[in-house]
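G., before I forget:
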Amino acid sequence: MSIRGRLTIFATVALVAGACTGGGTAASSAPSVAASQPAASTGTVASTPPASAAPIAGGLLDKVLKAGKLLVSTDPKYPPQSELEPDGTFKGFDIDVATEIAKRLGVKVEFTTPDWTAITAGGWGGRWDASVGSMTITIDRAKVLDFSSPYYYTPAQMAASKHSGITTLDGLAGKTVCSGEGTTYDQWLNGTLNYGTGQDLGKPPAGVKTVTLPTDTDCPDQWKSGRFDFDGWLSSSTTVDGAIKAGLPLVKVGDPVFFEPLAVAVDKSGPPDTDFVPMLKKIVDDMHADGTLSTMSMKWFGVDLTVASG
Amino acid sequence: MVAPVASRGPLGLGVGAESIVRAVAASRRQARLRFRLIFVATWLVLVGGFVILLGSTGRIDLDFLGTWAPFIIGGIPITIAVSVTSIVFATIFAVAGALGRLSRVAPIYATATLYVSLVRGTPLIVQVFFVFSALPEFGIVLPAFVAGCLALSFNYGAYMTEIFRAGIQAIPRGQVEAAASLGMTERQIMRRIVLPQAIRIVIPAIGNEFIAMIKDSALVSFVALQELFWRARTVGSSHFQSFSTLVLAALVYWALTIVFSLVQERLEKRMAESDVRI
């Protein structure tokens, strides 16, 4: 689309091509070009030709470039990462990240809204190209999906209803905790969350019982309705903050229980992605390096969540 | 010999009888009118009471709905498109299914019976999920709209198979025998004698199924179709206003079914016209 977008794709393709062929002049100069372009800049180098290196025929990159658009799945029940505008468009951190990735690929971005469980299950059948949906990289998901490097990290935060009077993590021992269906929070509560990195993710409160609802925000919404079948709620700290800000009757309980690396995902069973995923990783790394992601994180979360912690 | 014309009223009866007939008709009209008025008043009281009850929960946010109602209501065309497309294909499935269920050829009968049994024996939501998420495993990737419509029509086709079968069997056996004695083949009897009458019998039932379909179309929200229910649910859940948005969606579904019920009522009357004595 923009000159800067084309420039970046050229640089990225050149880098990938250079890496494959054993290096060259393009490869050594490309990173500095990409890194020197801040997110908001439109660039002024007009003479750079568009990407010419041929992607794998029939591959995902080929498909995206030919279509001129990146079709991204998003779950707009998850503010401030993704939510609807009254005119049916989307906004949020994930939306901005997806838009920027498409821009750097030199294509348009479009969004589709399948159920979250349909996204994490893989087998997308080519209905959409990528998920930019704050998805945690787990060992189970990595069986069906390929991931970029993490584009940010969220703390998983435990919360309790005001009704329960619980204020400490230990207070939730033996109680029921709610989380969204198919989320890492449900897995963590059940002791099955595994990043595949050997990282110790800690243990849930002793004897905790679990319940899931279709999406994270449904949990505190039950408290708002006056249902107290469960006392705790585990979700991303960003979602918990959103619920508190919306005036729902809950309090944060304890420090974050674990941290999640969140990445762009691509379907393993889809078109070959061996050229797409490295490019995705490169784009995400560039967006880290040039401060684009930090700026977006500050804009949507008020804190910089792009650095690994915990 | 002919009675003087002047002594007869416009109905051709004697003057005394005439006024009695008029009085009876007028009182019947009045009774009907009263009934209707009471009907409307009762609805107003009940619906008004319900609205007040909902309002008293303090969870209906009118400002919020004012902002979002256009978007949510914007799902109606998709809901109707899905329902209409699905009912058309369901009818095709149903005719094929019914003929299969009445077939004397064992494999055809077995296939049709398996279809009805399998579809009626599994939840619709599972079928929607299967068409959307499991078929791609076999290399069959359908766009969301097609996947949603296929699941709905396949499901409704099975239920409607039984409706069509009943419609076909409702045609008196004597007619079939009469047609056969005229030398018609079985195929001709089905096409010329049985099906035209069976369709007249089942059309009101199809209307009924259609109304049910409008509501079941909410299940295709799973496959990324932004129809009415999806919109209400997504908007409500991300703003913690599910109560407001779902009440709105319910009202819209209700309004839709009322409209289509009226259409169906007319259709039913039209189809029964030949049974009415003049």
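Chain A touches chain B at residues 73, 76-79, 83-84, 86-88, 112-115, 118, 121, 123-127, 214-215, 217-218, 220-221, 224-225, 243, 246, 248, 269 (CB under 8 Å). Chain A has two domains: 3-153+262-301, 154-260.

More on Monday.
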